[in-house]
Amino acid sequence: MTILIQIIKNLFPSKIITHHICDLVNQLSEQIIKSNYVFLSIENENKTRQLFYSTIEELITLFNHCPRNERTLCEIIFPTNLVKTCIDFEYYTDNNLDINDHCIGASSFLKILHFTLNFIDHKHHENQKYIDITLQQFLVLEASTSQKISYHFLHANPTVLFENNTTLGIFIQMLIHVLLTSIIQHTCSHFNIPFKLQKYTTSDLIIILSPHITTLRLHCTKCYTFYSHVSISEIAHVLVMNKQNQCTLAIDLNVYSKNQQFRLYDCVKQGQNNFLR
Ligand SMILES: [Zn+2]
Ligand SMILES: [Zn+2]
Fold this sequence. Notes:
The protein has helices at about 5-10, 20-25, 30-35, 55-65, 105-120, 125-135, 165-185, 200-210, 215-220, 230-235, and strands spanning about 35-45, 50-55, 75, 85-90, 140, 150-155, 240, 245-250, 260-265. By secondary structure, the chain is α+β, with helices and mostly antiparallel strands.
């Protein structure tokens, strides 16, 4: 038994801890699911997971009693949960040695998200102030290591709630699709590729752009998409190289599934020490 589970059993002897999501859901009436419970998963040493639910107060007690490096907790988002926008932004530094400033990609995408979730263009503000306005709504957590850049953005003061995690995923995918299309369609003295709007998937658009990433980052500092606070040069930092040296998105589109688990603040993966904070 992990230390975390021992602590839970000491603090809350009647709490039921299960191995399967269906067992957890079956314990509960519909009413409990909709009220203020948090559903949590614990990552064990052997990579299995155990599940339980608690109130926010119980969770805070647990945080205070559990040593930091034993906090292998994730929140489970059910298909019935309304969700705020959240983004996992990550890539490996070794495969992206040409990126000097790792803030560019993250902050450019954050600004675009803020714009699309507020429907207001703060044209009258300086760029420096604009990131401050963005941070009034977004919480930015970081779990970067020397090998990996890793940010987690959470729309903590939301202007939009999504019906569920899958709907949020479609919104993010669509936003990226529009963004990539408008980069491809722009022309300037350094970038001009023949492009007809046809049935492209987002992956097709990434493949079309991949030979041009360096050019875009270097030269398109005064080129813009539909949004005037972020240059195409900055947005081009959202396209990165994966471990196989193929061009991909720094935004993880695989986190918008049913019963998705998100790591909690100041928690870790079993056996690692890059706390999310
Ligand atoms: Zn304003
Ligand atoms: Zn350009």
